[in-house]
């Protein structure tokens, strides 16, 4: 009995000395959005100025852009990846990566990683995936932690297959954008001080024109834009640029059919309100604190010091003191623990999910042999999120609702989805923005099912085909937490059909 008790005490002491580190790392990324919301509420009214807002009339702002690449450079064959270091055996699809220069004058170049489908790639659509931040890498997050064909192992040197990768049903480009993120760069250092929504959208559009010259077999292929988080700006804005050019010129160089955005950041004030309401609804915040916030906050441009004080316990700086050591990206997920000897391990078990993977990925991409294999600039310090960008917050729209409404009216397929355990861009916030679209419901809220007879989430469709869905049991990075369910929903989006309304056992 004494020996067992001593062993228990040693284990307890070890656990008490261990330090949670994923929460701290997650805070850095979550803080990008939360600090953005806080700063935006001080610099711009909710109306904005139609005279200075490029998104108020996308056709006038962007319709003049070119419809073809004047001086294409690079080649598909030069970008071909023979094999990624540490990849598992029997990889049965083609991989490419490299740089596309999007601004010759400034020497601004974006890095991409492209994976074709292992199953009849020639008949599959083309999808561009964009991570948010703003300033976080689609290569590090989307490709290696979420929907890509591989996941990085704990050794930071080898890879394993992701059985539920989205390239099972599509050919997927992961773009590191804007310049300064991941391996993407500019030869004009001042570019990093002038990052913003409009330039990011135009650079991404120019990337597509150049990339299609490098991969001409994809010209005319059905094309979709997908992403998450601040891609709630990136994806609709890039789509708006593409549609604007199409309407202005009558030409359609990308064959864009729709956008598919998860846990999107759509509205400064509603994201703030939705995040705090989510914490209260899930028992993280007391009734008294929520009442105090509602008393002093209208969640609009008139909010001042009293509102800031009421919300301060859940500001990024104070979040973990108030809420405890939980991950705001999934408040029910395990976190990564660093032991006194420097090793890391998960605080709990969630099938298929390792919270420490965010540390494995940088280890992998900072290896010289990996940078060589993917045709990146050698000895480039790579990180998941950029720390050297200054974002033009004032020029970013306070709300994306007008842009989304315009896209729906043009006939574009627009789907939004939310993992229902995320507090950074929570389902509560997205519902407020969906409600602001003021669309008529055509197919009411109902459960949808996976082939395993699970309720994958809930879905509702509106006039014009706009669709909003939830993914049950998922956090901010939906494909990381629920890979099977995310793939079912993505496949449904590509087919333009709502996911199954009944389980196979009922059909």
UniProtKB/TrEMBL annotation:
SUPFAM superfamilies: alpha/beta-Hydrolases
GO molecular function, one term: serine-type carboxypeptidase activity
PROSITE patterns assigned: CARBOXYPEPT_SER_HIS, CARBOXYPEPT_SER_SER
UniProt GO BP: proteolysis
Keywords attached to this entry: Carboxypeptidase, Disulfide bond, Glycoprotein, Hydrolase, Protease, Signal
Signal peptide region: 1-24
Top-level class of the enzyme under EC nomenclature: hydrolase
EC number(s) stated in the UniProt entry for this protein: 3.4.16.-
Keyword DNA-binding annotated: no
Any Pfam family the entry gives: Peptidase_S10
Domain of life: Eukaryota
PANTHER family, alphabetized: CARBOXYPEPTIDASE, SERINE PROTEASE FAMILY S10 SERINE CARBOXYPEPTIDASE
Family: Belongs to the peptidase S10 family.
Protein name: Carboxypeptidase
């Amino acid at each position: 009995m004494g020996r067992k008790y001593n062993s228990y005490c040693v284990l307890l002491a070890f656990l008490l000395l261990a330090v949670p580190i994923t929460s701290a790392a997650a805070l850095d990324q979550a803080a990008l959005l939360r600090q953005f919301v806080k700063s935006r509420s001080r610099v711009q009214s909710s109306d904005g100025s139609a005279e200075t807002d490029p998104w108020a009339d996308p056709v006038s702002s962007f319709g003049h852009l070119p419809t073809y690449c004047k001086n294409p450079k690079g080649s598909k064959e030069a970008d071909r990846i023979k094999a990624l270091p540490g990849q598992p055996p029997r990889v049965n699809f083609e991989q490419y990566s490299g740089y596309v220069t999007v601004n010759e004058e400034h020497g601004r170049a974006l890095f991409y990683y492209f994976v074709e489908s292992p199953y009849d790639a020639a008949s599959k659509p083309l999808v561009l995936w964009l991570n948010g931040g703003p300033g976080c890498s689609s290569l590090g997050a989307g490709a290696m932690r979420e929907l890509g064909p591989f996941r990085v192992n704990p050794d930071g040197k080898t890879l394993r297959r992701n059985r539920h990768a989205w390239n099972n049903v599509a050919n997927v480009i992961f773009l590191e954008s804007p310049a300064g993120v991941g391996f993407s760069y500019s030869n004009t250092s001042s570019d990093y001080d002038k990052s913003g929504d409009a330039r990011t959208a135009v650079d991404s559009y120019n990337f597509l024109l150049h990339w299609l010259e490098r991969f001409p077999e994809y010209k005319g292929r059905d094309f979709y834009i997908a992403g998450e988080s601040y891609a709630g700006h990136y994806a609709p804005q890039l789509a708006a640029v593409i549609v604007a050019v199409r309407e202005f010129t009558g030409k359609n160089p990308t064959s864009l059919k729709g956008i598919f955005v998860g846990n999107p950041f759509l509205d400064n004030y509603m994201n703030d309100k939705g995040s705090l309401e989510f914490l209260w609804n899930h028992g993280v915040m007391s009734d008294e604190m929520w009442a105090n916030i509602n008393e002093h906050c209208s969640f609009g441009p008139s909010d001042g010091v009293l509102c800031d004080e009421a919300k301060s316990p859940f500001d990024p700086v104070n979040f973990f003191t108030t809420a405890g050591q939980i991950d705001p990206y999934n408040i029910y997920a395990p976190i990564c623990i660093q032991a006194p000897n420097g090793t890391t391990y998960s605080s709990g078990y969630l099938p298929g999910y390792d919270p420490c993977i965010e540390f494995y990925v940088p280890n992998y991409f900072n290896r010289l042999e990996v940078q060589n294999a993917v045709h990146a600039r050698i000895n480039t310090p790579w990180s998941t999120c950029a720390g050297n960008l200054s974002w033009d917050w004032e020029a970013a729209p306070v709300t994306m609702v007008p842009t989304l409404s315009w896209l729906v009216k043009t006939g574009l397929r627009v789907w939004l989805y939310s993992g229902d355990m995320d507090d950074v861009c929570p389902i509560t916030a997205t519902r407020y923005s969906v409600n602001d679209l003021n669309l008529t419901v055509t197919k009411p809220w109902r459960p949808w099912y996976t082939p395993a007879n699970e309720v994958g989430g809930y879905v509702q469709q509106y006039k014009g085909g706009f669709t909003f869905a939830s993914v049950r049991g998922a956090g901010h990075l939906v494909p990381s937490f629920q890979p099977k369910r995310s793939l079912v929903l993505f496949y449904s989006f590509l087919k333009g059909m709502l996911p199954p309304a009944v389980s196979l056992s009922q059909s």
